Amino acid sequence: MPAPPPDPTAEDALIPLSALQHHLFCPRQNALIHVEQIWAEDAATAEGRLLHERVDAGGSEGQPGIRVARGLALRSLALGVAGRADAVEFRGRPPRPYPVEYKRGKPKAHRADKVQLCAQGLCLEEMFGVEIPEGALFYGATRRRQAVAFDAPLRALTARVAAEARAVIAGGTTPAPVKTSACRRCSLEDLCRPDRLARAPRIAHWLAAQIEA
Predict the structure, then answer these.
(1) Residue 2 within any structural domain of the chain
(2) Would you say residue 145 lies in a domain?
(3) Is residue 25 in a domain?
(4) How many CB atoms within 10 Å of residue 78?
(5) Is the peptide bond before 94 cis (omega within 30 degrees of 0)?
(6) Extended beta strands in 81-172, E state
(7) CATH number where 170 lies
(8) Residue 14 burial (C-beta neighbours within 10 Å; 0-12, 13-18, 19+)
């Protein structure tokens, strides 16, 4: 029996795969980029963009007997995401996809990179109909791969973040800023203005005092 055609409504509701990483880092960053269409580049994002361009051009390490597809289009109707993989290695017989995501810098304490990679693995599972137990993150600062197991907790976190990111984008409302130490690492800090907007203006405090008096 032939597979049913894809639901065009579901296709229209897909969000960029990158939104998962943005949302886990900061829900407001997710909305600024994907709802308000605001973007600013700094040295870190420029370095990351150049690294991805080199990967897309084929300038990454390879291994004998492995076929590598670069910039492979990905989609998951279950997660509601679409995007492209930096590199997908096809290993073994029959070939099984193995996603590899390239990142500038070094491994991080938060799980945003792992969630983005896991989402790619879940897309590939849905597309190829095979189980994908792990992928790898390659960091430019260390020049080393970090294997990432797609275990049950990571899959659950990825599904939850995807649902939350979709809800923010579908709602079209940008969350209020919350000033944290991570703001210093965000290229949108000057546009987000967390120092000013995270605090109520003095006039708001004055009005509240008059109402309570």
Answers:
(1) no
(2) yes
(3) yes
(4) 13
(5) yes
(6) 81-91, 96-103, 134-139, 144-149
(7) 3.90.320.10
(8) middle
**Cα–Cα separations (whole angstroms), residue 86 to 74, 120, 148, 169:** 11, 10, 16, 24
pLDDT tens for the chain, residues 1 to 213: 455 565 656 777 899 999 999 998 888 888 888 888 886 554 454 454 445 455 555 544 456 678 999 999 999 999 999 999 999 999 988 899 999 999 888 887 789 999 999 999 999 999 999 999 999 999 988 888 999 999 999 999 999 999 999 999 999 888 877 777 777 777 776 667 656 554 544 544 544 555 554
Residue 44 lies in a domain: yes
Cα–Cα nearest to 138, from 130, 151, 147: 147
What is the span of the domain harbouring residue 151? Answer: 8-212
* Residue of 115, 107, 66, 72 whose CA lies nearest to 89: 66
- Which candidate, 106, 158, 109, places its Cα nearest to that of 132? 158
The domain tally of the chain equals: 1
Question: Which structure tokens are listed for 161?
Answer: 């973040």
**CB-side neighbour CA atoms (13 Å) of 185:** 8
Closest CA to 158 of 17, 48, 10: 17
How far apart are the C-alpha atoms of 134 and 124, rounded to whole Å?
A: 11
Alpha-carbon radius of gyration of the chain: 20
Q: Please, are residues 109 and 99 in contact by the beta-carbon 8 Å criterion?
A: no
Element (H, E) at 191: helix 189-192
pTM here is 0.75
